[in-house]
Amino acid sequence: MQTVRVALAQIAPKLGDLQANIGMHLDLLRRGREEGAGLVVFPELSLTGYLLKDQTPDVARTLDSPELKPLLESSRHIDALVGLVEEGEGHRFYNSAVYLSGGKVVHVHRKIHLPTYGMFDEGRDFAAGDQLRTAGLPFGRIGTLICEDVWHSPNAWLLAQDGAEILFVLGSGPTRGARPETGVTSVPVWHDLLRTTAQFQTAQVVYVNRVGYEDGLNFGGGSIAIDPFGREIGSIPALLEGWLIVELEGEVLRRARTAYPLLRDARLELVYREMGRIRTERFGLPEPDQDL
Amino acid sequence: MREADLGIDPSATTDILTGFIRSELERTGLSRLVVGLSGGLDSAVSTYLAAVALGPERIHAVLMPYRSSSRESLTDAALVVDALGIGSETVNITAMVEGCRESVGEMDRLRLGNVMARCRMTVLYDLSAREKALVLGTSNKTEILLGYGTLHGDMASALNPIGDLYKTQVRQLARHLQVPDLVVSKPPSADLWPDQSDEDELGFTYEEVDNLLALLVDARVSPATAVEKGFSREMVDRVLNLITGSQFKRRLPVIAKVSTRSVGWDFRYPRDWKS
C-alpha cells in the first residue's frame, strides 16, 4: 500500500435528519480537503443517526438517490466513507457503509451482524448483509466492517485473507457509564479489540465512533487509528466531537508483515476443512469438497 | 458479603450526565429547567449536574414544603440554592394538600404522602410551563427499581440524569460535585411525615440493597447465587418482590391492542423523534 492521509470525523449525527447530516458531511469533507486528507471516514449511520426504529424506511435511500449527489460530487476531490440506511433490492433496508471516490460509489459493505440483544434492536429494522468483499483503491486494498461485525473475529480475518491492508470500522457504540479503573467503560474495551485486530491481521485499522445522545443512550467516541504492529497512531478523546488526521504509512505495513508473516502462514485449507466438518456435524449437511 | 462493583468514575460520569442534560434539553428548543429541591441528596445532585451543564441562570429551583416538613429540609435546600447561585421560589403545598383531603375525606399517611408528591408534581409542571422549562428528574436507580416513589408524583419528570445511578453512586457523585456535606451525610428521608427514614421503612441500608441490586440486576446473578454470596434469603425475596411488584411504576399504562398499529407495541419511535 501507499501512504495515505485519513481524517477521522467523530461527529454527533442529527437523528433522522438526512439533509442536516449531508450538510455536516459536506462541511467536513471541505475541511478534509483543505487539510490535505485523501479520505474522510465517518461513523456508522452517520447520515441518519442510530436510534431510528420506525423511521428506518423513512430515511432509507437507494444508492442512486439524487439526495446523495452532492456527496458523490464532493468525492471527485476527496474520498468519503459514510454510513447510511441503504434501500436494497426487494425493499430491504441495510445498515451500510458506502465508499465514495471519483464521483462514484466504489465499495459498499452491508452490516452483517445486527445486534439484537440488551439495548440493541437492529434485527427488527435492518436486513443483514451476507458478503465480505475488499476493494482496491489507488493507495491500497481496503475492507470495511460496521461496529458489531468486528466482534466476530472471522470477519477481519477473511478481509485480510482477501487482501485488505486497511480495515475501516464504523461505529455507533454506546457507553455503559464510567468506572474508576477505566473511565468511560466502552472505550478501552474497543481499543483492546481493535489493537488485537490490527495485530492479528497485520493491518492498518481505522475506527470512527460517533458521540452524542439519543434518548438516554450516549455514544462513546474514542475513535482511533492503529498501525499493523498494534500501535496507536492517533486517537480522539471519548464523548466529545472531534477531528483527527492520521497518516497510514505503506512502509510500516511492509515491515509488520515481514516481521510477523501471519497472513502468509494462515491455513485456509485447514480452516475450510474443519469448517466443513463442523458444518456437517451441526447441520447434517454434506461435506464440502473433499479434495482440499 | 462480597461487594458488587458500585464504583464510578465521578469525573467521566459527570461529563456523560451534563452532556445528556444539555443535549436532551436543547433538542426540545427550550433552554431552562425547573427542579423540585427537597433538601435531600438526590435532588441536590440532579441540580448540581444541571448547574454544571447549563449554568446557574438557567435553573429554577422550587422548594415545596408541607406543614409537617422538617425545618432542615427547607434550610438544606436553601443551602444548595445559595451554593449554586440559582433562582428559586418557595411554594407551600399545605393548602393544596388540605384542599384535597377536605374534598376526598380522611386518608392514611401513605395516601397523604402520595397526595403531597402529586401536588409537588402539579406545581412543578405548572411552573415549567410558566418558565418555558422542562422538569428535571431526581429519582435514583435504587428507588426506581424498588418502586420507592410515587407514580405521577416524584417519579414524574422530562429528563432524569441520575436514574441509572444507585443511591450509593449518587453519593459518590455528590462528593465529586462538592454538594454541601450536610446534605450528603444526612439520613435519607422522603420527609412525608415526621422522622420518616428510607432505610427504616425499607428494612435495609442503601449500601446493602445497592450491592444486592447490582448483583441481581446488573450482573444478572441468580437469587440463589446472591444468597450464597452472603445476602439473607429474606432480603433477596423481599427485594425481588419489590422489583416485580413495582413494574407498573416503570411503564406507561397497558394498552389493549385492537388495531394494526398500536402505541406501545408497533408504533416505535425514540423519544427524541424529530427533535
From TrEMBL, chain A:
GO terms for biological process: putrescine biosynthetic process from arginine. Pfam families: CN_hydrolase. Coiled coil: none annotated. The keyword Acetylation does not apply. The keyword Iron does not apply. It comes from Candidatus Polarisedimenticola svalbardensis. PANTHER family: BETA-UREIDOPROPIONASE, NITRILASE C965.09-RELATED. This is Carbon-nitrogen hydrolase. GO terms for molecular function: N-carbamoylputrescine amidase activity. Keywords: Hydrolase.
Automatic annotation (TrEMBL), chain B:
It holds the Pfam family NAD_synthase. Deamido-NAD(+) binds at R118. It comes from Candidatus Polarisedimenticola svalbardensis. Mg(2+) binds at D42, E143. NCBIfam families: nadE, PRK13980.1. InterPro entries: NAD/GMP_synthase, NAD_synthase, NH(3)-dep_NAD(+)_synth, Rossmann-like_a/b/a_fold. Keywords: ATP-binding, Ligase, Magnesium, Metal-binding, NAD, Nucleotide-binding. The gene is nadE. Pathway: Cofactor biosynthesis; NAD(+) biosynthesis; NAD(+) from deamido-NAD(+) (ammonia route): step 1/1. It is an enzyme of class 6 (ligase). Its EC number is 6.3.1.5. Homodimer. GO terms for biological process: NAD+ biosynthetic process. One of its GO terms (cellular component) is cytoplasm. ATP binds at G36, L37, S38, G39, G40, L41, D42, S43, T138, K167, S189. Residues 17-253 form the NAD/GMP synthase domain. Belongs to the NAD synthetase family. The keyword Metal-binding applies. Gene3D superfamilies: HUPs (3.40.50.620). GO terms for molecular function: ATP binding; glutaminase activity; metal ion binding; NAD+ synthase (glutamine-hydrolyzing) activity; NAD+ synthase activity. It catalyses: deamido-NAD(+) + NH4(+) + ATP = AMP + diphosphate + NAD(+) + H(+). Catalyzes the ATP-dependent amidation of deamido-NAD to form NAD. Uses ammonia as a nitrogen source. This is NH(3)-dependent NAD(+) synthetase. The lineage of its organism: Bacteria, Pseudomonadati, Acidobacteriota, Candidatus Polarisedimenticolia, Candidatus Polarisedimenticolales.
